[in-house]
Amino acid sequence: MTRVSLFNSPLLLGFDHVERVLDRVAKSANDGYPPYNIEQRGKDGLRISIAVAGFSNEDLQLSLEDNQLTIRGKQSEEPDRVYLHRGIAARQFLRSFVLAEGIEIVEARLDNGLLHIDLVRPQPANVVRSIKIQSGPPSQASTIEASGKKAAK
């Protein structure tokens, strides 16, 4: 079956990146384990808190690739442990978040069964440039031909 894209219109050229991001978001929606919160922290900060009770630092892995934050968790089995009842599953997980351009990871910290990932979106500095205004006819060096190349001197 052929997949129909929202960005299939000839009027929407150059939106391939957006379509790839939407595909990654759709693939990252999994069974809801582990649960997580996303909260606003100040004007430019965010925090992702993931419930990872029973996981240690060694059991967790964070990676960032092409604006996709991926958290993997895998607990190691202890073969010498004998369970009479096992109600706490030692299951692995993969949770992904697609981050907007410019968002940076400040810190990741494991605290009381919660993995806190602090993010910040730095505000771009407003750059004001002063441009000198020339008078008279344009110089030959600044003349631009129709082809987009500078004219030869």
Distance between the termini: 59 Å
Strand content: 25-35%
Shape: elongated
Strand order across the biggest sheet? 1-2-7-6
CATH-defined topology of the domain at 33-123: Immunoglobulin-like
- Please count the beta strands (DSSP E, at least 2 residues each): 7
Q: Structural class, from helix and strand content? A: mainly beta
The proportion of residues forming helix, as a percent range, comes to under 10%
Write out key terms for the chains shown.
mainly beta, single chain, elongated, Immunoglobulin-like, 4-stranded antiparallel β-sheet, 153 residues, 3-stranded antiparallel β-sheet
Explain what you see.
A hairpin with a 2-residue loop joins β3 (60-65) and β4 (68-73). The strands form 2 sheets. The chain has a 4-stranded antiparallel beta sheet with strand order 1-2-7-6, with no helix packed on it. Helices cover 8% and strands 30% of the residues. The chain has a domain at 33-123: Immunoglobulin-like (Sandwich), CATH 2.60.40.790. The longest helix has 13 residues, at 16-28. It has 1 helix and 7 strands; from the N terminus they run αβββββββ. The chain has 153 residues and is mainly beta.
